[in-house]
Write a structure and sequence with these properties.
alpha/beta; 10 strands; globular
Amino acid sequence: MCRKNDLVCRKNDLATVLRSAEVVPTATKRDGPVTRDEEVLVVGGTRGTGLLVVQLLLRDGYRVRALTRHAERAKAHLDPTVEVILGDLTRPETIPPAVHGVAHIVFTAGVPVGPARESLIKATEYEGAVKTLAAARREGFRGRFVYMTAIGVTRSSLTGTLLNLAKGNTLRWRRRVEDEIRASGADYAIIRAGFLLNKPGGTRAIELTQEDLPLKPRYRIARADVAETIVEALKRPRASRATFDVVWGRGARREAWDTLFARVKTDA
């Protein structure tokens, strides 16, 4: 039996999720800004939620580009059709080749689970996101920038305080990223994910809310469900310039994405 904090267990769980994502039925017809002849850049696409996003985009017939520091990891995990660009978020000069010519960007990158220095958090999670968007804008980017962050960036909680202490004020820096994105003038969708679980998606109801939930274990969700939400947010006009939380709702019944996004309002 796997222990709660067993790293091997978590890796095995994620492998199960990745396999499940490969057999999810094809999504409904696109009704948003993405079309088949456009390329989507996924930053953070070689692991975790970002890898699931890549797989879902490929499943739906999109062209995908991934920015990664690790060529071997990309080769091992990504489909051969993915265009891989070697780069590092902490080295801004490596970002322009990744954003050049892409229609849309999905940013899921972050420092891996565990304690981290604030300097690394700032360089990766704040400056990495802000400089990616800035580089894209300099290249004439006019698409949607989908940013995955976490619940609790605007609501204090004991869990959030502990996370900030252990992981270099990550929630505070992520809130600053949100502010920078909103002020940029770009089309965006900011998605605050609940506690991430390495479980298959599609087994629970999903709730999209703009109530600014605190970071608490009761607000949880499978990575696979977050990845699907990200892809749907890329497609849908109602997600444009909107910030919302995504967590599991009550029960197993999944509402249609049209119904879920109909409740989302544009940021004031």
